[in-house]
Amino acid sequence: MKKIHGMLALFDTAPAIYQAANTVREAGYKQWDVFTPFPVHGLDGAMGLKRSRVPLFTLVGGFVGFWTGMFIAWYMGAFDYPLIVGGMPYFSPVFPFPVAYEMTILFAAFGTLGGMFFFNRLPMHHHPVFNYEKFRRLTDDQFAVVIEAGDALFNEEETRRFLEELEPLEVVAVYEDEEAVSA
Amino acid sequence: MPRAPIIENARSFAWITDKVCGIVEGRAPRWWWIGFILSGMLASFTLMGLIYLTAVGVGVWGLSHPVFWGWAIINFVFWIGIGHAGTLISAILCLLKQKWRTSINRAAEAMTIFAVACAGIFPLFHVGRVWFGWWLFPLPNSNVIWPNYRSPLEWDVFAVSTYGTVSLLFWYMGMIPDLATLRDRVTMVYEKRAAEAKTAFAKSFEFAFYQFRRVFYGVLAMGWRGSNRHWSNYEMAYLLLAGLSTPLVLSVHTVVSFDFAVSHLPGWHATIFPPYFVAGAIFSGFGMVLTLMLPLRALFGLHDLITQYHIDCMCKICLATGSMVGYAYAIEFFIAWYGANPFEAFAFVNRAFGQYAWAYWIMITCNVISPQFFWFKWARSKLWLVWILSIFINVGMWFERFVITVTSLANDFLPANWNYYSPTAVDIFTFMGTFGLFGVLFLLFLRFLPLLAFAEIKSVSPQADVHGHAHGNTDKAH
Question: A109 lies in which domain range?
Fold first, then answer.
């Protein structure tokens, strides 16, 4: 017996998926998602998504980077091996500024990319939606709404009927991986 | 006046996917193999030059008293500068919401990364004992000494390595959705190619190639599935990386210019250097983007995605930055006179009329005069002319670095020190070889990675509008 992951409705235009996302949100579903081949402008609002928290990682990265830059210049030049060069001070916040500046950007960039992967739980090479036979179209030119079985309002029959009212190309059930169920 | 459409002939999403993916999914065209073999042969010059240099010493380059910064630093600044257009297109134009960037940003970012790789070779080998190159980084070594943070050369190490790394991250992150599309097409492509394979050898090759592509795109795509919850974080991360790359790209050539400006040499010690170098870098980079994209557009038939509008935009940026560079040349002369420093005044008169006057006038012709054609629509629409002018820009910007570096060093404060600097054959072959290296990397990119950022192109096409204004501003195309 295959375990159901959710109910998928396929659409072929951006306005249709936008309308569908609005309707699903208004119906009160919580555990659901939309799959699109490109970022559809306005869909975050239609889905009621909160603002992304990736900037937190960027901020922390930038902060750590700046102080790392300043710290290594102080530690290496003024603490571990003080050496007079050109009559300049062992340490000053001015001359290592370019180094701290670049380190700020470097760490913030890693933080941003890392934050994106963290919040998206990527890399994840297995997901039930990949089992959908037309998944290829979802990274090409079609769009889908998936209402997951874990949602409190999910009911195989009713959710199917609800999605069919949105006039999609088709509504199909998406199942979990066989191995994942037996494991 | 209606805006020119970014995608001509109102192409569908599927058409865009097929067009761009087709470049890496079809067989390599004959010109690709010819280009690849020639580039590989050319790249071997760099390899041989560097082996010879490592074996014998930096004396095999034309460096001698008083010119100890010759072609190596010129080539370094030249290649780094070329990279700047890629970051400008991907970051600054993203913040400015210039939608036309989506058709050219991927290739320009690839150009950035390969240009930085070519640039890095020169300072690395200029240190002489290249096996100690890692001393540039703040790593503990057996001499228990550390890099000197008071030196602009050390700032440069941080600036350039950060630039290379962040450009790579940005490039890769931008590619993830497109790699996912390629991944999802792998099986379909294999079925088609296997059906065409006649011999047993061809069949097993197709199978091996299929396995390679399955793993290669599968791993790189990170399991991207186009979820809008992911897109939301992804878009935010993209915007942040654009915001981080903008001060980064401006700082990189600023720090490169500090290599010169922080010294006390007449002709180098000038506060105008940072903005002047950044403008020059963007100018040279757009020259290179045009040099690369015009042939690619014709070879792959990308006329609907890289339109005359895109070419106009790039030409105008060349015109603007080229004029800024020309203005900087003029201001340098003005300040040399107005500053009333006899050494400074001499350095500039000597540039224009001294022993390197030939290089100076090549620079002026290529950098100041040639972009002025881009004022005119007829010049921008004659693509052969645009292409030739883009080559002039590349040449001119190399000569700018030659003029700055060599004229100031060769004729410094004491006339008894003066000398005439010439490169050796090793210099010339090592530099020419980097074009081969660049070509090899770029051709591999064409074959294996998506040339255009098609997910982004789709998102700016009229049919992506959720309120159904698909025919609002493309009506005139019918």
Answer: 54-120
What mean pLDDT comes out for the span A151-171?
A: 91
What does the pLDDT read at residue B143? 82
**Among candidates B360, B387, B359, which has minimal Cα distance to B374?**
B387
CA distance B107 to B443: 11
Omega of the bond leading into B247 within 30 degrees of 0 (cis)? no
Q: Which of residues 95-124 of A touch B (CB under 8 A)?
A: 95-96, 98-99, 101-103, 105-106, 108-110, 112-113, 115-117, 119-120, 122-124
Residue B435: count other Cβ atoms within 10 Å of its Cβ.
16
- Structural domain includes residue B62: yes
Interatomic CA distance for residues A139 and B56, integer angstroms: 54
Is some CB atom of chain A closer than 8 A to the CB atom of B114? no
Q: Which of A120, A139, A154 is the last residue of a domain?
A: A120
Count how many domains chain A has.
Answer: 2
Looking at the complex, report in whole angstroms how far the Cα of residue A8 sits from the nearest Cα belonging to chain B. 13
pLDDT in tens, B207-253: 999 999 999 999 999 999 999 999 999 999 999 999 999 999 999 99
Residue B473's pLDDT is what? 45
* Residue B1 pLDDT class (50, 70, 90 cuts): low
Residue B154 contacts A, CB cutoff 8 Å: yes
**Do A99 and A148 fall into the same domain?**
no
- Chain B CB within 8 Å of residue A125 CB: yes
CA dihedral (A166, A168, A172, A177) in degrees, to 10, reads -100
Integer Cα distance of B36 and B388 in angstroms = 22
CATH value at residue B379: 1.20.1630.10
Query: ipTM of the assembly?
Result: 0.93
Q: What pTM, to 2 d.p., does this model score?
A: 0.92
pLDDT-based confidence at residue A1 (cuts at 50, 70, 90): low
**CA proximity to B280, closest of B396, B392, B190:** B396
Confidence of residue B85 (pLDDT cuts 50, 70, 90): confident
| Domain closes at, from A67, A93, A120 | A120
Query: Could A125 and B17 be called an inter-chain contact, meaning their C-beta atoms sit closer than 8 Å?
Result: no
Chain-centroid distance of CA B404 in Å reads 21
Instruction: From A61, A68, A77, select the one nearest B147 (Cα to Cα).
Output: A77
Kindly report, residue by residue over B175-194, the tens digit of the pLDDT. Answer: 999 999 999 999 999 999 88
- Verify that A43 and A94 share a domain, yes or no: no
Q: In total, how many domains does chain B have?
A: 1
Q: What is the pLDDT of residue A181?
A: 46
In this structure, are A82 and A112 located in the same domain? yes
Alpha-carbon gap, residue B442 to B117, rounded angstroms: 12
| CB B146 within 8 Å of CB A78 | no
Q: Rounded distance, CA B405 to CA B71, Å? A: 9
- B22 vs A: CB within 8 A: no
Same domain, A162 and A174: yes
Give yes or no: residues A62 and A115 share one domain.
yes
Co-location of A130 and A115 in the same domain: no
Residue B182 maps to a domain = no
